[in-house]
Structures are given as structure tokens and as C-alpha cells.
Amino acid sequence: MLSVFFIISTSVKSNNYFIGIKTNFAFKSFKMKIILVKPSMGEIIKGYDINEGSMEPLQLAILASLAKDDDEVKLYDDRIENVPFDEKADFVAITVDSFNARRAYEIATEFRKRETIVILGGVHPTLLPDEAEMYADAIVVGDAEPVWNELISDIKSKKLKKRYQAPFGIPQAGLFPRRDIFKGKKYLPFSLVQYSRGCKYNCSFCSVSSFFKNSYQCRSINDVLYEIEKDKLKNILFVDDNLVTEKKNLKILLKELIPMKIHWASQSSIDMVKDLEMLDLMAQSGCVGHLVGFESINVNTLKWFNKSANLKDFNNYKEALQIFCDFGFLTWASFMIGNDFDDLETIEKTVEFAIKSKFTLAFFHVLQPYPATKIYEQFKAEGRLLYDAHWWNHPDFKYNSATFIPKKITPEELANAAVKANKDFYTWSSIGKRMLDTKTNMRNLINFSVYTRFNYILKKTST
């Protein structure tokens, strides 16, 4: 999943708003300098260059919006630039996911060597707070907004606590990203926007489910519309874990987007095809396509993953894909390989299915047992975890390598199969075959432009 952030959300209780509204904390009036850091994934197995085509770190732009007007805020994105460890700041805030935890801890350690206060937050510190505390002066567990002013006040009064526990709540209530911190950085040419957070499903491999405990909260529709209008956004990626979780309010949002003449894409579950009214509103409101977690073409794997959205009525995806084509949506398909039913032959068949389906893009990820997920606990109980069970912090871990012992192939075979799968999907022959779909990839100039640009980028990253 695109995932989940520093984490940004806010409780709407009492007077805990942060945009021009009174707060519960009295600040000393002096200017602060704040550095925000997006870590890279560190080492990557040969065959990938995933930092090519990086997206804006929206979570850090939202944190930047919590700063006072006279505070200086700087963003350093470790994926595309060097982090200046010697630069002076009142504190550094780093967003941490499991796959970049080791690099995040390295960055934190370098700043702390220079006696700069380091704050860690995000999915990984929330799931493993005791570990994260070893590398930080303070951590944020849960959403950042409800505790951010308290944390700043404590830094100013030199009473910083080790841990700030925040409740989950409505995302970004009255809060809008500071996109000026992206200026001059070479991100992909679309803007990230958040409408909702969380997911009602409980997939066994998903850290989002573990983090949010199957909760789901929608942002104010008026706030979303205001943000799009205020920042003059025209090409948008909704970063929701599953945009279509709550359809009633989503339809209201879609109707409001129609006159705004934008183009947008999202992450959505495949069961959205059951609601044709919603799909029609998507098309009218400028939807270009969706990132869909297909995960597998094997029904036994889907049951093992507890991928219930894919199991309902769609044993072979044929009907769902036909509906997608009828509405002209581009499909970015995500597959999780290395499950207990996979061998080299089934992985090859998955790639063949993706090419035959003429998906605009496809991603073949090695199954990762993220901490606190059901699959992690299963592999741990079975003694199948590599790197002393803490793969995210092990010096030998590389992104998209196998961190467990698969049932039917070796870890090395799985890692190599992932590289091969992505290379095979982005051969010139495959790109040419998939392009020739007049219902989707060649439906209009916008679709064709998206298709050619991103296939070119991903061909570069997978060779």
C-alpha cells in the first residue's frame, strides 16, 4: 500500500484544532527551525532502482503545516538528495515505515551524535515503540496532530517526554499540507491528497490493518475540496488505503469533484465494481484509474491472505476486469509473491496473467511479514523468519529480498523471481502488447500519456 504516514490525523474533540484556532498549550514566542526527513529504503537487491520516480511525502507536508508562521521548516528527502547532518535545528522529525526502519535509525543516530533532538513517528514506531525509543529522544505513537503542539511545547520548555501516545481520529480536520516544502524537488508530476484513513478489511499480511485495528475515518469533504481549490491541484493521487470503503459519502465527494475538472487516481479494492453508480461518478469526476491489490490469481492464496474483497463473487477476476474496461479505467495491479502456494511456475503464470489482462502497470512484490501482522506471527511460530526475526533492522536486509523461508522455493529463488517478474512485465514486447487496448490504455490522450510515461519509468527501475 502507498501507504500510511508519520501518522497524520487529528481528534476533533474540544479545542484541539491547529489552524488559527485556540489550543490547550501556551507557547513561548521564539522562532524554531524544524527539519523533516523522509528516509530512503537503504540497500535494494540488484535489479531495482525504486528511488526513480519518487512521490511527494505528503505526511511531512502535513506536519509542516502544524508549525507556526515564523518557524523555519525544511524537508530533506533521502531518496533523492543528501541529508545534511551538520545542519543546526531545534529538532528533526523522521517518518518511519518497516521497510526503511534501518535507514531511518541510521539518520536518527547521526543527528543525535550532533546533539540534535530527534522525533520518530509513523507505522513502525507505533507497532514497535520500545524498539523505536532506542533511536530517538521521543516517539509519537498513533496520529501526530493531537499531540504535536504538546510535543513542541515540551521541547521549548525542555520537558520532552519519551513517548507521546495519540488517539486515532478524523484525518486532517481543518489542516492543509504545506506544499511549498516540495519546491525544487523532482517528484512525479501529481499531487497527493488524503480523503480517508484505514481499511475495514483484515488482510493477514497488511500492517495497515494492524495499525488501525480495522478502523476507518473519512476527512471532511469540504476540507478536501478546499485543499484542491486552494492549491490549484489538477492531477491528484488519493493516498487512501482503500478509497471505496465508505461509498455513501464518497459519492457526495465525487459529485463535487465533477465541475473542478481534475484528473485523479486512487488505491481501491476490486469490489468497487459492484457499484456501477459510483463507477460512473468516478468517470465523470475525472478518474483515470486505480491501484488494485490483486495479490494472487490463486483462490487458496486469497483465502490464506484473508483477502475477502477479492473472494466475493470474483474467483477469476474476469467480470471485474471487463467492468473496469467498460469505464475506461487504467489498472495498476499489485501482486504479492512468495506465499505458501507459490513456486516458480505459479509466479510465471501470474506475470502471464498480468500481461494478458493488459494492465497499465503491475508490481510484483515479495511477501513481507511486517511486524504485528498475522503472517508475521505465523512465520515466527513456525521458525521461518530470517535475520533473527527482525529483518527490518538487520544489516543484510535489502528491499524486496526474502525475509522468510518460503514453502516451495528458496529465499534466493524468490528474490530472483521477483526481479525477473518485474523485468518480464516491462519488456518492450509486453509494453507494446498491453498498449494496444483501445478501451483503456489507448482510450484517449491522457490515458496514453500516463501509460507511456510510467511504463518507461518502471522499465528503467526494473533493469
Number of self-contained structural domains? 2
Strand order, main sheet: write it out.
2-1-3-4-5-6
Main beta-sheet annotation: 6 strands, parallel
Number of strands: 14
How would you sum up this structure, described in words?
- The chain has 463 residues and is an alpha/beta fold.
- The strands form three sheets. It has a six-stranded parallel β-sheet, with helices on both faces. Strands 7-10-11-12-13-14 form a six-stranded parallel β-sheet.
- Mean pLDDT is 88; it is low at 1-28.
- It has 17 helices and 14 strands.
- Strand 13, helix 13 (344-356) and strand 14 (361-366) form a beta-alpha-beta unit.
- The protein is 35% helix and 15% strand.
- The chain has two domains: 33-165, Rossmann fold (3-Layer(aba) Sandwich), CATH 3.40.50; 191-461, Alpha-Beta Horseshoe (pyruvate-formate lyase- activating enzyme).
- It has helices at residues 58-65, 101-113, 123-127, 129-133, 145-156, 207-212, 221-230, 247-257, 276-284, 299-305, 308-311, 318-327, 344-356, 374-381, 411-425, 428-435, 445-461, and strands at residues 33-38, 72-77, 91-95, 117-121, 138-141, 163-165, 191-193, 196-198, 216-218, 235-238, 263-267, 287-295, 330-337, 361-366.
